[in-house]
## 1
Amino acid sequence: MMQQILDDITAQMALETDRGKVADYIPQLAHVNPNQFGISVATPDGQVYSAGDANTLFSIQSISKVFTLTIGLSKLGSTLWNHVGREPSGDPFNSITILEYESGRPRNPFINAGAIAVVDAITMGREPEEILDEIIQFVHFIADDASICFDYKVARSEIDHEDRNAALAHFMKSFGHLQYDVDKILNTYFHQCSIAMSCEQLARAGLFLVSNGINQPTGAKVISPQQSKRINSLMMMCGHYDGSGEFAYQVGLPGKSGVGGGILAIAPGKGAIAVWSPGLNSVGNSKLGTKALELLGERTGWSVFSK
Amino acid sequence: MMQQILDDITAQMALETDRGKVADYIPQLAHVNPNQFGISVATPDGQVYSAGDANTLFSIQSISKVFTLTIGLSKLGSTLWNHVGREPSGDPFNSITILEYESGRPRNPFINAGAIAVVDAITMGREPEEILDEIIQFVHFIADDASICFDYKVARSEIDHEDRNAALAHFMKSFGHLQYDVDKILNTYFHQCSIAMSCEQLARAGLFLVSNGINQPTGAKVISPQQSKRINSLMMMCGHYDGSGEFAYQVGLPGKSGVGGGILAIAPGKGAIAVWSPGLNSVGNSKLGTKALELLGERTGWSVFSK
Amino acid sequence: MMQQILDDITAQMALETDRGKVADYIPQLAHVNPNQFGISVATPDGQVYSAGDANTLFSIQSISKVFTLTIGLSKLGSTLWNHVGREPSGDPFNSITILEYESGRPRNPFINAGAIAVVDAITMGREPEEILDEIIQFVHFIADDASICFDYKVARSEIDHEDRNAALAHFMKSFGHLQYDVDKILNTYFHQCSIAMSCEQLARAGLFLVSNGINQPTGAKVISPQQSKRINSLMMMCGHYDGSGEFAYQVGLPGKSGVGGGILAIAPGKGAIAVWSPGLNSVGNSKLGTKALELLGERTGWSVFSK
Amino acid sequence: MMQQILDDITAQMALETDRGKVADYIPQLAHVNPNQFGISVATPDGQVYSAGDANTLFSIQSISKVFTLTIGLSKLGSTLWNHVGREPSGDPFNSITILEYESGRPRNPFINAGAIAVVDAITMGREPEEILDEIIQFVHFIADDASICFDYKVARSEIDHEDRNAALAHFMKSFGHLQYDVDKILNTYFHQCSIAMSCEQLARAGLFLVSNGINQPTGAKVISPQQSKRINSLMMMCGHYDGSGEFAYQVGLPGKSGVGGGILAIAPGKGAIAVWSPGLNSVGNSKLGTKALELLGERTGWSVFSK
């Protein structure tokens, strides 16, 4: 039945003519074919249902912030919150105004400034290579898939267009909110964002947030139940930038979007959903991805806001 | 067992020495004894569990915004969103800056400006008395209790200290975002906020949001399942002003606080919780109320973010 | 020769096709014929040179803020600055954002909030009629012309469209930055703005700022040399809202504009210039008025920034 | 008599106990002895009057922005204004909020972002060395003194603490408001700010702004009368950051301050004043320097706002 739902949604998405606008700030993202659509649902019993382009790799971009946040909470516990807040920002993902208003402390770990601060917090004196090695190993572990890797061309291209993020990083540094070298932090950050995954891989990687911190099919204990709950709350409150309220209203699940067109959504106790379509809406979240999740919610009743 | 939990929490709260700061902007609120604490849980099977001062009346203040939002969605459906947005604001409850930035359109129905816009939207040419009559009848209906009423002394006192809200209302009006007379809208708004309820009454009044729009014990169909889900999402995203992220992180339930020290929280499918303690934390939400809800979550496992 | 200059400028202005946009927020201003243009120069030797519609009455609007500031400094001395700042705001004349950022204290006496605060400061427990009587007497005194009066229809119309200014006033009041009744303060403020004057009257009224506080032709000592200098500095820094830098750059004289299309400019030691044309530029200052003052500067060399 | 005035002022300043706070964001500035005070007045007839530490070199810092603005206007004419605005910002010198609000275009050439944009505008494909060579030659020319040079230790130290300015530069670049390499632009900018001059040298360097663009003693035609007037207007409106209104009010002359404690003020037709004392007031301008200029104004009557 889940398979039928995903097939129906994929068929319906194929008919959509207004597919949003592909991110064009770096060439590697701009060249992606906007007509692609994939969806996968991984359930705690070990099943993965997929439809459309669910095995095509795409750039997960900001979805990676969920993974570095998880690493940060594992390593630092609640002292991570000395580095970054946990309130919705009300501003776009790359806004600097609120950063000035709050003296360089980023609002939450899912806006760019906050994710950069998380990278700084987990650096602990190490070089980018070491941190990136830890990040990719962690992704292998949670997705149970050692084939996942960085897309170095995408990372390179991001570095070549780093100015907005460089501004955020230097700004935080000027307030003493970053400890390490800005160029190295950004290097790590851009590589983290360049990770390429398919919907299937991403859905599996999200399973630990479905079952209180444990990837049930593999039995891997990723994080404590308490932290799992809290990561979900952050995804709900801040996962879609200034479109987070809209996503909560329409979809009703914790989720995190990336500018590559992917979204990872979590239905606690039920399943992890990864959806991907490159065209974005006006606030930078996948247009068809959001729509598909709405339809999935209607068909399955999955929403944290209903019984 | 729920009774035991509430008794334990109440006992623990009695030991707290730092109880926050009672709202003091109007004398009627300032004079409330800060040592009071009450909690009630109403469940879909018709049980109500209570402890502490659960039968003492208090001023529900902004919790009333949940009720007028429900009325607004019932009457206007999705056209209500022409009047008000549904994104967290990232700003305090009475901030005017974001209102200027967004040309007079309030961010969501739970900041003061947004609640005032909801009153304007449901006015439909009527006088304050008629609208207030509708509001109080609605509260009687959902709480199944016709004894609930306005506290006219509180309302009067609010009117006498109206300047911040008058600024918000005139500002919206100057952008054409209010249709009716500012003084009348504010009159309605201040009376709505003055409604006095006990924890028991409030917990019962929240039951319709526990069970997809239906007050199960009474069988009253209050709103559609779709709208119920969405009201919960708004409570989650915006129910605690710029402390909403913190509340989601610590408590993990949709909730709405009032400056009188009350909080209504919803555990879909499980129960409606009303808690009250007059002292507020730095962002204006009940200090012990929030703590009590955290403890309740730990003991019951109620959180929309875990399975 | 000055007469020739003014005639030339008036002739040139008659050829202008892009005359800006007449203020339309109240009907009384919207109906003014945009093709009018007048200019007068009053010199300390008692001469007044005029051209165009220099004897037509127009609504001086915000130019009146120079007069109430002068009254405020006379009555309160430097304690006036407890009520209002003296920095350019960088924001439009009716912005409320900076008012929130600075806790309700207006930046300078020439933005609306600041002028309202000046009215409050000079109220001293009196009724609007008494204050307005003082204001109009003062204008009679400095202009040496007892025929000048309020335009009650304009004032009435402003009151009927008061929302933006009411928002500013209630907002300041909520921070304790206004002492008296908001409705009365606004009543005074709108009448003050409604004063109708001709270019000739206005140029004469400005003479005291040309000669260190003394209206040389009448010998009236209006204010101290120190205060005269300071009023000029405020006109330079803040007289044209967020177009003040542009006016200083293009014209180089202290000046104050009004939304009725008038501008009063002061060339210390040389003369007071009043110019009027109803069409406004994008920041709300008279389009042809500004242009005419630039031309006058080129022809006369009057600028405080050259020798 | 001018000599007497300067001696009196210097004697009076020696008695001041509250001398402000020396800039401490780089060690080279932090180590300067706060008890120093110097003042020089250069007049168009070739006289230079001095008192106190008028021959001690200090870091002119932001005063250098007057010189690069002059170069920019010489080279680019009014097309310079495509790169930067000319309105007071109402914000501190290093604020980034208004830069976001105005899409990366700096408000004026005297805030840091604007000065960086001027450096970019005059770069024209050249390396920092070439531009810096042009800048120092220009300073030699206007001051008639070839001994003036950069302080490379100060420049180095600024580069080591570049984060705030790097944030501004990257931010502008991200909006396409800078054309050249951020690191090179900043390198030029920090060297420009490191120029070391004495009060005597600085007063002479300001003479061209006293006499409509001509350094009268040397006869050097530096810039057109029109541009000279406009540079003065910018100094008046924006020369002291968010203390510009206060400076205009208290001193009444166009001026530009630097965080090294220097101020250059211009009395058109009368003289150029350079004053220096390292302690700063709360908005970053020399505390005693401002006071000394007020006293000078009282004694000489120099103010553009009186006759």
## 2
Amino acid sequence: MKFSVTVTLKKDVLDPQGKVVKNTLVNMGMNNLKSIRQGKHFEVEVEGNDQSIAEEKVDEMCKKLLVNLIIEDYKINKI
Amino acid sequence: MKFSVTVTLKKDVLDPQGKVVKNTLVNMGMNNLKSIRQGKHFEVEVEGNDQSIAEEKVDEMCKKLLVNLIIEDYKINKI
């Protein structure tokens, strides 16, 4: 069973990496770019046929390792 | 207009970072984890009301800077 996990910085957390990317794109002539924020993306495959149990497992992985809950939000989707 | 861009390594490209994450999770007791691959995620906001023009701009950004087309795939979604 496959899930995608998207990890993004919380709204009020500064994103220096995204800022550098934005400045670079603007310098390359992309004038209509308003903002860009960078996050992480995981494709997780777990064994088992029960979707809710599998999703719980992925949620546990997020909380224990993949996501820093103080500064990041995350979203799990079945794919 | 907001778009999400998901950048993933192509299927046949090794993902050492994902491998480290996988090993760590298995060592933490997640035995039913089959595979995990890491990618990047961008939230891009561009000006303008025409979706197709905006999407083209985002696509140009991907090709010129955000994505290494030799080893990475990308997907653009309107959010």
